[in-house]
Structure formats: structure tokens, C-alpha cells
Amino acid sequence: MALIVQKYGGTSVGDVERIRGVAERVKRYVDEGHEVVVVVSAMSGETNRLVSMGRDIAGSRGSAREMDVLTASGEQVTVSLLSLGLLSIGVQAKSFLADQIAIKTDDVHGKARIQEIDTKALRAALDAGCVPVVAGFQGVNDLGEITTLGRGGSDTSAVALAAALKADECEICTDVDGVYTTDPRIVESARRLTHITFEEMLELASLGSKVLHPRSVEFAGRYRVPLRVMSTFQDGPGTLITTEKDDMEQPLVSGIAHAIDEAKITIAGVPDLPGIASKILGPIGAANIEVDMILQNTGADGLTDFTFTVKRQDYDAAQKILQAISRDINAREISGDNEIAKVSIVGVGMRSHAGVATKMFDCLASESINIQMISTSEIKISVVIAERYVELAVRALHNVFELQKLPE
Amino acid sequence: MALIVQKYGGTSVGDVERIRGVAERVKRYVDEGHEVVVVVSAMSGETNRLVSMGRDIAGSRGSAREMDVLTASGEQVTVSLLSLGLLSIGVQAKSFLADQIAIKTDDVHGKARIQEIDTKALRAALDAGCVPVVAGFQGVNDLGEITTLGRGGSDTSAVALAAALKADECEICTDVDGVYTTDPRIVESARRLTHITFEEMLELASLGSKVLHPRSVEFAGRYRVPLRVMSTFQDGPGTLITTEKDDMEQPLVSGIAHAIDEAKITIAGVPDLPGIASKILGPIGAANIEVDMILQNTGADGLTDFTFTVKRQDYDAAQKILQAISRDINAREISGDNEIAKVSIVGVGMRSHAGVATKMFDCLASESINIQMISTSEIKISVVIAERYVELAVRALHNVFELQKLPE
User: Fold this and answer.
1) Domain extents for chain A?
2) Which of A86, A371, A405, B284 sits between 20 and 30 A of A188, alpha carbons compared?
3) Subunit contact B67:A84, Cβ cutoff 8 A
């Protein structure tokens, strides 16, 4: 018997029929003798519908407090519907909203951070043989006001609950059956990973694998909550995300991620003086534009080229800002490219193996793919290439690192 | 400067455009220097949509606790949207859910009764120059669970808040511009009443005038909260509902109500013995069928005829129950009619004037309308007639009692 926190996303509870299916799935765990706490998102599309009504009325700068009251209603609908579904098939269940537990957060409406969870009510429900069905995505601040955790918030709710309850496992039940070595739509031989480390998953999530929100992975890693990504709709063990173990096979590369929603901007020929980076990136940050990769090459002439990437949707805005300050920073030229892609290989095995980078660059060269930018961390290497080569690059790398093969 | 509680029903907040209109309307009151507390219902159709999803999953006997969590989400959406709307036109506003105030109720889920309202938070908001926007229909029990007040619950929320805050007036803003002498769709010359007493309104509401829920009228009467029914969509004073005053003109008859959703059942020739009424009505009540009028005529032969009316939708079920017990109660015959209508005249003036009943019966006789049942109270007379005569009866009575004329 284990204590398991299960999170079901918007697609899994997208209509009445699917909610019935989730109830049946939860029942199987209960029948096997497990204690189960369920966390649900709003029905798919519902949060967007609510946000768009709110924006219709108040524009995009409406009160964050009221937007939170508005969007939190979506999870209120699904916790009650799922509880009704569980009760109707004979499973004791009870819905809990964030303030009823309480899931205490700071008061940054729209992207609040969980500070504390009181597990008393949940523990009492579990002890009474009842399945608590908890509203994801929402919290409550010290004033008793509703807060929300931002995109991917329900994953974070589930992980935080699992940590607070010292659950044996946190299952993220979704519409894919696990984490893959790469996008199966690009590489047919992509293989579901049986397990992966938090660090690797964090890199993959940050690099464009949409399965889990990076924040929830980080949270799970910090509190060492075993996290499992699995399918709501079909049986299977999914992918277990845990801390690195000595006896774990450590493949050189665990997975390949790609992202095509970026753009790069180069400021060429600026004086190589202290403070130039903040002069360039300060106004970008002030405009709430997120910067991903940053590269600076120093030339011999006392001038430097400065390149960074932003989300493609921010490309025009970022260029305008730089044009406005180009005289101020004495730039020779500002150029950009919004038809780029980022391809990354991730693996804890890289730490102890040299030559991974070389193998990656050789592979891309042999396909005549030019590398525009490189950025590395201890367990990943990312390159920026022209967008039109992205599938070719991913397939070639998947093949070179033999990801289709099960590790020995 | 007055303290006014305004309640907006589902039609008034039926879409984003209408919510904007409500915000503008509230702003006018604020600009005039009034303190305003707003109570809103869910968007029209939303509560039904939620209930139908809940029933889809759990049938009609789903957990009442969870149905309350589900349906209460509807008001959560409208309080936040209206707050966003107010803020966006420069009116300070803040949404409040039942548990944030708190609106304490008993724990009869689905038809909870308000026990206590803590006005501290609302008073603080008002003192800060803010419009509190309160979720109607919902409450919270001692366990911190969401309860709902049943149909018409938002009217009751508004009246209870007005009583607790000692508001100067409670305005029920709706899609009609007041209470009429009778249904204007039947009588063209029907006139909007400038005022009416709680007792009269209570009778009219119970008798089929759909403007206000009887419970809210009763509540307003008990706590002497001046209640005003008025239009959300057009200007005008509406109808003021207050306690009877000496200097009020007291027309003989204030209004005429009619209802065509009833049916009558007659049990003929049952022994006239003590306990016979409960033998007949006991099983009816046990089946959750509401009985309206009850008549019993005693004959000379020790037998009695027993007639009562039920909602038309319960007609078949009630007949089946009586057939099943007819031998037990020794009934000679059970018959019924589901093509009946109830027409009622209501007026506090009846108390002090004889002859009102005679005038009513004469009027109906002169139109050759047969009266099947009669029931009276201090301030109303109801008759049951064949449904096909209902418009004719209402028009004739409206004319005879000269309701189209303004009282002197």
C-alpha cells in the first residue's frame, strides 16, 4: 500500500465522459489498497475561455486579484464533477479548494508561489478512507484571497502536495504515455524512457519538451518527490523521474529537445567596455521580454558582437527597443533572424564523458547543417541552427547517439 | 448619500457586454455619492449547465455537497468579471465569495439558510471607498464547506446583506421594470405599481408572479428591508416594496396573479373520519410532491370529498400514489384534471372591505366562468378555473377592480 498523489490535466478531464474515465482509473488504485490524493486542472480550454472573458472586459491589465478569482473557478468545476463521479461508483471522495486545505502562497496574483500546505484535513480524509480531490493551480494568501500559480500550476500543486504528505509517488497523468528520447512525430524510432533524472527532465522541460512544467520538476527535485509521467487513457508504467542513483544506467545522452519558437538578434560592433551587456539587456528586461541564450564574442579591434535569443513573439518588440538605443550603445549594426531553431541534447552521462560535444558537432557537419550559436551546461548542449534543418538535425542526432536502443 | 445593496440576476450579467452595462450602472450610483454593495447571480443558463453536467455524471442523487461546490463556481465567475469591469472604468471594487465575508449558513446543502453575516470585511471595503461585489446564492457552513441557498437564492443573499448592513434599500435589478398589477402580456392596460406591501408581494410571488422569490420577500419583510424591483436595462423608479404605512393609499386589490402549472385531484366518497387527510396527503408528501390548495367538503352521508392541487409535473405521480392507497382509504372514486388554472386577487385593502369576494365571483359569473375551487387568506382570494378561461378571467378582473387606474 502506497500513498500516491495523482494529477490529471485539462485533457484528461475535458468532458463528462473523460471525468468518468478518470474516476474509474482512481478506483482501480483504491481497490488495490492505495491511498490516493487527486489533483485536477480545469477542463481543457476552460481557463483560456475565462481569461478571454476577463480580457474582453478589462483588457490585458485587469486586476490580477480578480483574474485569479475568475480562473480559479475552472478547477472548482472539475473537483466537484470528479468527486461526484467517484461517489457515483462507490468511492468515498471529497473536493477541496485551496482555502479549505489551506495551500498558502505569497500574494503575487497570477504567479503565486506555494509557501506552506496544511495536511491535516487531507490526512483526516485519507484516514477516513476518502479520496481527497484537490483543486490544482490555486492557492490562498494570508488575507484569504484566491491566488493562482500560473501556467503549469496544477503540476506544481500536485508535487507540493506530494512533498507535504510525504507521498510515495506523484503521478502526472496526461495524454502522452511518458517522456520520449525525442519528439516521436519527428523520429519514428523515438523510445519512451523508463526513467530519467530530475536534472535531465528539467533541461528537457526548459528546452521545449511540453510534458511537464519546469517549475514542478524543480520542486520535485528539491523535495525528492518521485515523479511519474504516464497516460490517463492507456495502461503502462510511464516514465519515472527520480534522483540520480549510482546503479542507474547512465546513457551519454538521454533525450533530444527542440524548440522553434525563438529568434536571435545580433548587435554587431559595439565597444567592448564593462557594462555593455546590461546597457543592451536592461531595456529588454524592462519590457518584460525574456532572454534565453546570450553570446558575446570579443574581436581584436576593441569591438564586440553581442547575440541573444528571445521568444519569436517578442522579436519585433526587442528589435525596436535596440534600434532606439543603438546610437547610445554605439552599435555598428543590429540584425536578426526569426527563422531559427534550437536543438539540445541532454544527459547526465555527459558529466563524465568527454567527446559528446564533438560527436554532436560532427554529426551536424556531416549533414551540412551550420551551427549559429552554441551554449552548454553540465548536462546539456544546445545549438541554434536554421529552422528548416530542425527535423533533419534531430533525426541525425537521435541516430548517432543510438537513442532508439534500450540502454544495457 | 445612502447605503444601497443592488442585486443583478443572471440575465443582467448574461454576457460580457451586459456586465459592462451593469458596471456603468453601478458607477452612476457611486458618482452620485452612494455607498453600493453589489450581489450577482451566475450568468443566465450557467447554473443549469453546471447542474446538467453534475447530473450527467452522478444522476439526480449526486452528493449535495459536491453539487454546491460545482454550482457556486458560476457566481465566482460573475463577481470577478464585474469587479474587473468596475475597475476598468475607474470604480474601486473587490469581489467577495461567501466564505470570505463570511455568509454563514446551516449545512443543508442545496437549500441552506443564512444564519449570520459578518459585515466587517464589507464595512472595511466600503469605508475604503470600494464597491464590494458579493457572490449571491452561496454560503459557507461551520466546516468551511460551500453551501447554496437554492433557487432564487441570490435575491435572498442581497436581502440578508442589506439587513446585516442596515442598508437604506435593497434593489433587485432585473429584466422587468417593476411589479405590475397583472401580467402585461395578458392585459395591455396592466400598470406598474409604484409600491406594494411585503405581504402583498409575498402572495403575488407565491401565486406565480416570477419577479421575486418568495423567500427573499419574506426575509425582507421580517427584517424590514425596503426592497425595490427595477430594470437593469432602463431607467425608472421600479416598484418599492415596504411595510404598510397609514398614509399609504390602500387599493382594494393591488394585483392579479395567475398560474397554469397546476393540476387538481379529487378523492370522492371517503369516510369522514379523523386522520383521513393525513392518510391521503402523507404518502404524497413522502414522495416529495408539494401540495398547494386543499379543500374538503363534508356531505350528509358521512362521506367526504377531498380535493387538492399539485404542480402539473407531479400530477401523474400523485395519481399513481392515490390509486395504490385507494382501497386502504375506502375511496369511491379518484379523479383529476390537469387543465386548470389558478387566478388570485391580492390586496391589503381587502382586510377592511367586505364585498371583494362577491365582486370577484360576480365578475367571473358574468363571463360564464365556472369556479371549481376557492381558497382565501386575509389579503388574497384564489380560484381554480378551467385553463382555457385564464386570460378572460384575468382581463375581466383587472377591469372590474379598475387596476389600470392610478389610485387617488
Assistant:
1) 3-243, 250-402
2) A371
3) yes
Architecture of domain B3-175: 3-Layer(aba) Sandwich (3.40)
Strand partners, A22: none
Q: Can you tell me the ipTM of this complex?
A: 0.81
Q: What is the mean pLDDT of residues A44-48?
A: 94
Residues of chain B with a CB closer than 8 angstroms to some CB in chain A? 16, 19-20, 50, 53-54, 56-59, 62-63, 65-70, 72-74, 76-77, 79-81, 83-85, 87-88, 94-95, 97, 99-100, 144-146
- Number of Cβ pairs closer than 8 Å across A and B? 117
Looking at the domain that runs over A250-402, which CATH code has it been given?
3.30.2130.10
Contact B66 A95 (CB under 8 A): yes
Burial of B247 (0-12, 13-18, 19+ CB in 10 A): exposed
Interface test with B, best of A65, A67, A69 (most B CBs within 10 A): A69
Residues B3-52 pLDDT 10s: 999 999 999 999 999 999 999 999 999 999 999 999 999 999 999 999 99
| Nearest neighbour of B58 by CB, restricted to A84, A94, A100 | A84
Tell me if residue A33 falls in helix, strand or coil: coil
From the CA of A143, how many Å to the nearest CA of chain B?
Answer: 9
Share of chain B above pLDDT 90, in %: 66
Q: Does the domain made of A3-243 have the CATH classification 3.40.1160.10?
A: yes
Provide the whole-model pTM: 0.84
The amino acid at residue A23 is A
Partners of B66 on chain A (C-beta within 8 Å) are 80-81, 83-84, 87, 95
* B244-408 CATH, one of 3.10.150.10, 3.30.720.120, 3.30.2130.10, 3.10.350.10: 3.30.2130.10
CA of A135 vs chain B CAs: smallest distance (Å) = 11
**CB–CB of B123/B29 below 8 Å?**
no
> Which residue stretches of B37-193 are H helix?
46-58, 64-88, 98-101, 120-127, 153-165
What is the H or E stretch that residue A38 is in? strand A35-40
SS3 state at B356: helix
